[in-house]
Task: inverse folding
Protein backbone atom coordinates (compact mmCIF):
# COMPACT_ATOMS: atom_id res chain seq x y z
CA UNK A 1 0.00 0.00 0.00
CA UNK A 2 2.78 2.39 0.96
CA UNK A 3 4.70 1.48 -2.23
CA UNK A 4 1.69 2.24 -4.38
CA UNK A 5 1.37 5.64 -2.71
CA UNK A 6 5.04 6.48 -3.39
CA UNK A 7 4.66 5.49 -7.05
CA UNK A 8 1.63 7.74 -7.46
CA UNK A 9 3.44 10.68 -5.84
CA UNK A 10 6.48 10.13 -8.08
CA UNK A 11 4.26 9.93 -11.13
CA UNK A 12 2.60 13.24 -10.18
CA UNK A 13 5.99 14.90 -9.68
CA UNK A 14 7.16 13.73 -13.10
CA UNK A 15 3.93 14.99 -14.66
CA UNK A 16 4.28 18.39 -12.97
CA UNK A 17 7.93 18.61 -14.04
CA UNK A 18 7.10 17.68 -17.60
CA UNK A 19 4.28 20.23 -17.69
CA UNK A 20 6.56 22.92 -16.21
CA UNK A 21 9.31 22.32 -18.74
CA UNK A 22 6.81 22.13 -21.55
CA UNK A 23 5.35 25.50 -20.53
CA UNK A 24 8.82 27.00 -20.06
CA UNK A 25 10.00 26.08 -23.55
CA UNK A 26 6.65 26.66 -25.28
CA UNK A 27 6.89 28.89 -28.36
CA UNK A 28 4.09 30.96 -29.87
CA UNK A 29 1.61 28.82 -31.80
CA UNK A 30 1.89 28.88 -35.57
CA UNK A 31 -0.84 31.24 -36.75
CA UNK A 32 -1.42 29.10 -39.85
CA UNK A 33 -2.90 26.39 -37.58
CA UNK A 34 -5.34 28.77 -35.88
CA UNK A 35 -8.84 29.79 -36.89
CA UNK A 36 -9.39 33.58 -37.08
CA UNK A 37 -11.64 35.10 -34.41
CA UNK A 38 -12.78 37.88 -36.72
CA UNK A 39 -12.81 38.38 -40.49
CA UNK A 40 -12.92 41.97 -41.73
CA UNK A 41 -11.67 44.17 -44.57
CA UNK A 42 -8.44 46.10 -43.88
CA UNK A 43 -10.23 49.40 -44.50
CA UNK A 44 -13.02 48.59 -42.01
CA UNK A 45 -10.45 47.52 -39.40
CA UNK A 46 -8.44 50.71 -39.86
CA UNK A 47 -11.59 52.86 -39.74
CA UNK A 48 -12.86 51.29 -36.54
CA UNK A 49 -9.56 52.24 -34.86
CA UNK A 50 -9.61 55.83 -36.16
CA UNK A 51 -13.28 56.25 -35.17
CA UNK A 52 -13.04 54.93 -31.59
CA UNK A 53 -9.71 53.47 -30.50
CA UNK A 54 -10.90 52.40 -27.03
CA UNK A 55 -13.84 50.51 -28.46
CA UNK A 56 -11.71 48.96 -31.22
CA UNK A 57 -9.16 47.86 -28.60
CA UNK A 58 -11.91 46.08 -26.68
CA UNK A 59 -13.04 44.26 -29.81
CA UNK A 60 -9.79 43.40 -31.59
CA UNK A 61 -6.89 43.42 -29.10
CA UNK A 62 -5.08 40.05 -28.73
CA UNK A 63 -7.51 38.49 -31.24
CA UNK A 64 -6.56 36.67 -34.40
CA UNK A 65 -7.89 38.90 -37.17
CA UNK A 66 -8.16 37.91 -40.81
CA UNK A 67 -8.11 40.91 -43.12
CA UNK A 68 -8.45 41.39 -46.86
CA UNK A 69 -7.06 44.40 -48.62
CA UNK A 70 -4.69 45.93 -51.11
CA UNK A 71 -0.92 45.67 -50.57
CA UNK A 72 0.59 49.16 -50.59
CA UNK A 73 4.11 48.40 -49.36
CA UNK A 74 6.36 45.35 -49.13
CA UNK A 75 9.41 45.49 -46.85
CA UNK A 76 11.93 42.66 -46.76
CA UNK A 77 15.26 42.30 -45.05
CA UNK A 78 17.40 39.41 -43.89
CA UNK A 79 15.39 38.90 -40.69
CA UNK A 80 11.82 39.80 -41.48
CA UNK A 81 9.10 40.58 -43.98
CA UNK A 82 6.31 43.07 -43.43
CA UNK A 83 3.40 44.19 -45.56
CA UNK A 84 1.37 47.36 -45.36
CA UNK A 85 -2.27 46.87 -46.29
CA UNK A 86 -4.28 49.87 -47.48
CA UNK A 87 -6.47 51.45 -44.81
CA UNK A 88 -8.21 53.77 -47.28
CA UNK A 89 -6.33 56.76 -45.86
CA UNK A 90 -3.32 57.32 -48.11
CA UNK A 91 -0.24 56.87 -45.99
CA UNK A 92 -1.53 54.63 -43.20
CA UNK A 93 -3.16 51.24 -43.00
CA UNK A 94 -2.59 47.85 -41.41
CA UNK A 95 1.05 46.98 -40.74
CA UNK A 96 1.51 43.19 -40.91
CA UNK A 97 4.70 41.52 -39.70
CA UNK A 98 4.96 37.96 -41.01
CA UNK A 99 5.54 35.17 -38.50
CA UNK A 100 8.13 33.36 -40.57
CA UNK A 101 10.81 34.92 -42.70
CA UNK A 102 10.58 31.81 -44.91
CA UNK A 103 7.11 32.90 -45.97
CA UNK A 104 9.09 35.42 -47.97
CA UNK A 105 9.20 32.80 -50.71
CA UNK A 106 5.47 33.29 -51.04
CA UNK A 107 6.25 36.95 -51.48
CA UNK A 108 7.37 36.43 -55.03
CA UNK A 109 3.72 35.93 -55.86
CA UNK A 110 2.59 38.99 -53.93
CA UNK A 111 2.71 42.25 -55.79
CA UNK A 112 2.09 45.80 -54.76
CA UNK A 113 -1.47 46.99 -55.46
CA UNK A 114 -2.91 43.47 -55.52
CA UNK A 115 -5.50 42.15 -53.06
CA UNK A 116 -4.46 39.63 -50.42
CA UNK A 117 -5.91 37.96 -47.35
CA UNK A 118 -3.70 37.74 -44.29
CA UNK A 119 -4.28 36.81 -40.64
CA UNK A 120 -2.40 37.89 -37.53
CA UNK A 121 -2.69 38.95 -33.89
CA UNK A 122 -3.91 42.51 -33.35
CA UNK A 123 -1.72 44.64 -31.04
CA UNK A 124 -3.62 47.92 -31.33
CA UNK A 125 -2.93 51.14 -33.20
CA UNK A 126 0.37 52.95 -33.63
CA UNK A 127 -0.48 55.27 -36.56
CA UNK A 128 -1.10 52.03 -38.46
CA UNK A 129 -3.08 49.14 -37.00
CA UNK A 130 -0.50 46.57 -35.92
CA UNK A 131 -0.75 42.85 -36.65
CA UNK A 132 2.10 40.48 -35.79
CA UNK A 133 2.68 36.73 -36.25
CA UNK A 134 0.95 37.10 -39.63
CA UNK A 135 0.50 34.45 -42.28
CA UNK A 136 -0.85 34.86 -45.76
CA UNK A 137 -4.09 32.95 -46.28
CA UNK A 138 -4.07 30.98 -49.54
CA UNK A 139 -6.93 31.92 -51.88
CA UNK A 140 -8.56 28.49 -51.70
CA UNK A 141 -8.86 28.63 -47.88
CA UNK A 142 -10.70 31.92 -47.48
CA UNK B 1 25.80 92.89 -70.43
CA UNK B 2 25.91 93.32 -66.65
CA UNK B 3 22.27 92.34 -66.44
CA UNK B 4 22.85 89.19 -68.48
CA UNK B 5 25.85 88.28 -66.29
CA UNK B 6 23.84 88.80 -63.10
CA UNK B 7 21.09 86.69 -64.58
CA UNK B 8 23.52 83.85 -65.43
CA UNK B 9 25.07 84.01 -61.95
CA UNK B 10 21.71 83.99 -60.22
CA UNK B 11 20.56 81.06 -62.37
CA UNK B 12 23.75 79.24 -61.46
CA UNK B 13 23.22 79.94 -57.77
CA UNK B 14 19.64 78.75 -58.06
CA UNK B 15 20.73 75.49 -59.71
CA UNK B 16 23.23 74.77 -56.94
CA UNK B 17 20.92 75.62 -54.07
CA UNK B 18 19.79 72.35 -52.48
CA UNK B 19 16.13 71.73 -53.15
CA UNK B 20 14.06 72.50 -50.12
CA UNK B 21 12.63 69.11 -49.19
CA UNK B 22 10.26 68.39 -46.37
CA UNK B 23 12.31 68.45 -43.15
CA UNK B 24 10.35 65.55 -41.64
CA UNK B 25 11.37 61.91 -41.84
CA UNK B 26 9.39 58.88 -40.80
CA UNK B 27 9.50 55.13 -40.28
CA UNK B 28 6.90 52.56 -39.24
CA UNK B 29 9.41 49.74 -38.89
CA UNK B 30 12.06 50.90 -36.49
CA UNK B 31 13.43 48.12 -34.25
CA UNK B 32 13.54 48.18 -30.48
CA UNK B 33 15.23 45.26 -28.74
CA UNK B 34 15.06 44.65 -25.00
CA UNK B 35 17.79 42.59 -23.46
CA UNK B 36 17.99 41.23 -19.95
CA UNK B 37 21.05 39.13 -19.30
CA UNK B 38 21.76 37.07 -16.19
CA UNK B 39 23.92 33.96 -15.83
CA UNK B 40 20.71 31.91 -15.60
CA UNK B 41 18.74 33.35 -18.47
CA UNK B 42 19.11 35.62 -21.47
CA UNK B 43 15.83 37.26 -22.39
CA UNK B 44 15.38 39.11 -25.63
CA UNK B 45 12.24 40.83 -26.90
CA UNK B 46 12.07 42.42 -30.33
CA UNK B 47 9.62 44.96 -31.68
CA UNK B 48 9.83 45.59 -35.43
CA UNK B 49 6.87 47.95 -35.70
CA UNK B 50 8.12 51.01 -33.89
CA UNK B 51 7.01 54.35 -35.33
CA UNK B 52 9.52 57.18 -35.33
CA UNK B 53 9.43 60.74 -36.64
CA UNK B 54 12.50 62.91 -37.07
CA UNK B 55 12.48 66.60 -37.96
CA UNK B 56 15.92 67.59 -39.22
CA UNK B 57 15.12 71.32 -39.12
CA UNK B 58 14.55 71.31 -35.35
CA UNK B 59 16.17 68.06 -34.21
CA UNK B 60 12.84 66.85 -32.81
CA UNK B 61 12.76 63.09 -32.44
CA UNK B 62 9.81 60.89 -31.45
CA UNK B 63 9.25 57.21 -30.95
CA UNK B 64 6.02 55.34 -30.30
CA UNK B 65 6.08 51.69 -29.30
CA UNK B 66 3.14 49.29 -28.92
CA UNK B 67 4.07 47.05 -26.01
CA UNK B 68 2.04 44.13 -27.33
CA UNK B 69 4.09 44.06 -30.53
CA UNK B 70 7.18 42.79 -28.67
CA UNK B 71 7.97 39.22 -29.64
CA UNK B 72 9.88 36.73 -27.50
CA UNK B 73 11.10 33.28 -28.43
CA UNK B 74 9.35 31.74 -25.43
CA UNK B 75 5.59 32.30 -25.41
CA UNK B 76 5.47 32.20 -21.61
CA UNK B 77 7.96 35.08 -21.38
CA UNK B 78 5.86 37.09 -23.82
CA UNK B 79 2.74 36.48 -21.71
CA UNK B 80 4.52 37.38 -18.46
CA UNK B 81 6.06 40.47 -20.08
CA UNK B 82 2.59 41.72 -21.09
CA UNK B 83 0.61 40.64 -18.05
CA UNK B 84 2.99 41.02 -15.10
CA UNK B 85 5.74 43.45 -16.05
CA UNK B 86 4.70 46.15 -18.51
CA UNK B 87 0.94 45.53 -18.01
CA UNK B 88 0.22 46.25 -21.65
CA UNK B 89 -3.56 46.19 -21.23
CA UNK B 90 -3.28 49.13 -18.83
CA UNK B 91 -0.32 50.85 -20.52
CA UNK B 92 -0.44 49.89 -24.21
CA UNK B 93 2.21 52.34 -25.42
CA UNK B 94 5.65 53.50 -24.53
CA UNK B 95 6.75 56.78 -26.08
CA UNK B 96 9.77 59.00 -26.30
CA UNK B 97 9.55 62.67 -27.23
CA UNK B 98 12.79 64.56 -27.36
CA UNK B 99 15.37 66.58 -29.22
CA UNK B 100 18.76 65.96 -30.74
CA UNK B 101 20.54 68.81 -28.96
CA UNK B 102 23.47 68.95 -31.37
CA UNK B 103 21.41 68.42 -34.55
CA UNK B 104 23.19 71.36 -36.22
CA UNK B 105 26.43 69.37 -36.19
CA UNK B 106 24.87 66.70 -38.40
CA UNK B 107 25.42 67.29 -42.11
CA UNK B 108 22.11 65.87 -43.31
CA UNK B 109 23.18 65.77 -46.95
CA UNK B 110 26.69 64.32 -46.57
CA UNK B 111 27.25 60.60 -46.00
CA UNK B 112 28.90 59.81 -42.68
CA UNK B 113 28.44 58.96 -39.02
CA UNK B 114 27.49 61.65 -36.57
CA UNK B 115 27.42 61.13 -32.80
CA UNK B 116 24.40 62.84 -31.27
CA UNK B 117 23.07 63.72 -27.82
CA UNK B 118 19.38 63.26 -27.26
CA UNK B 119 17.29 64.50 -24.34
CA UNK B 120 13.61 64.00 -23.78
CA UNK B 121 10.72 62.45 -21.96
CA UNK B 122 10.45 58.68 -21.91
CA UNK B 123 7.14 57.12 -20.86
CA UNK B 124 7.06 53.48 -19.87
CA UNK B 125 4.56 51.60 -17.72
CA UNK B 126 2.79 54.90 -17.08
CA UNK B 127 5.90 56.53 -15.58
CA UNK B 128 7.43 59.61 -17.23
CA UNK B 129 11.18 60.22 -16.88
CA UNK B 130 13.55 62.76 -18.34
CA UNK B 131 16.39 60.89 -19.96
CA UNK B 132 19.58 61.87 -21.77
CA UNK B 133 21.10 59.34 -24.11
CA UNK B 134 23.85 59.12 -26.67
CA UNK B 135 23.19 57.91 -30.17
CA UNK B 136 24.36 58.04 -33.71
CA UNK B 137 22.92 59.42 -36.93
CA UNK B 138 24.23 57.71 -40.03
CA UNK B 139 23.82 58.84 -43.63
CA UNK B 140 24.32 56.19 -46.27
CA UNK B 141 23.74 57.25 -49.87
CA UNK B 142 21.52 60.02 -48.55
CA UNK B 143 19.37 57.68 -46.43
CA UNK B 144 19.13 58.73 -42.77
CA UNK B 145 19.29 56.12 -40.03
CA UNK B 146 19.58 56.46 -36.26
CA UNK B 147 20.76 54.10 -33.58
CA UNK B 148 21.22 54.12 -29.84
CA UNK B 149 21.83 51.75 -26.96
CA UNK B 150 20.99 52.68 -23.40
CA UNK B 151 20.09 51.05 -20.11
CA UNK B 152 17.09 51.54 -17.92
CA UNK B 153 16.51 50.48 -14.34
CA UNK B 154 13.20 48.59 -14.12
CA UNK B 155 12.49 49.97 -10.63
CA UNK B 156 12.58 53.54 -12.06
CA UNK B 157 9.44 52.62 -14.00
CA UNK B 158 7.66 50.81 -11.15
CA UNK B 159 8.27 47.43 -12.75
CA UNK B 160 8.94 44.97 -9.97
CA UNK B 161 10.50 41.55 -10.32
CA UNK B 162 8.96 38.82 -8.17
CA UNK B 163 11.56 37.31 -5.79
CA UNK B 164 11.08 33.85 -7.32
CA UNK B 165 12.55 34.96 -10.67
CA UNK B 166 14.94 37.62 -9.42
CA UNK B 167 17.97 35.61 -10.56
CA UNK B 168 16.55 35.27 -14.05
CA UNK B 169 15.71 38.89 -14.82
CA UNK B 170 18.28 41.62 -14.65
CA UNK B 171 17.27 44.77 -12.76
CA UNK B 172 18.80 46.75 -15.62
CA UNK B 173 17.45 46.22 -19.11
CA UNK B 174 19.45 47.15 -22.17
CA UNK B 175 17.49 48.84 -24.94
CA UNK B 176 18.68 48.93 -28.55
CA UNK B 177 16.97 51.26 -31.00
CA UNK B 178 17.54 51.28 -34.73
CA UNK B 179 15.58 53.21 -37.38
CA UNK B 180 15.93 53.80 -41.10
CA UNK B 181 13.95 56.85 -42.18
CA UNK B 182 12.25 57.95 -45.35
CA UNK B 183 10.80 61.36 -46.20
CA UNK B 184 7.43 61.95 -44.60
CA UNK B 185 4.63 62.68 -47.03
CA UNK B 186 1.88 63.69 -44.66
Result:
Amino acid sequence: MKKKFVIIILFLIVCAGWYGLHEYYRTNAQTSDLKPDIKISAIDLYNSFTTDETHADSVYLNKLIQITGKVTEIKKDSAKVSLLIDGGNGMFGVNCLLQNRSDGEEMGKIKKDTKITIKGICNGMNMDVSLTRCVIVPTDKK
Amino acid sequence: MKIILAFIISMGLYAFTPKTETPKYFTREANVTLLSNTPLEKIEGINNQVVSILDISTGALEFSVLMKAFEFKKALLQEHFNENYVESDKFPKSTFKGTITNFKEVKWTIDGEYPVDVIGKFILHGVTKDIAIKGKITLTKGVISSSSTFNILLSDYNISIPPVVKDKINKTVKIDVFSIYKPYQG
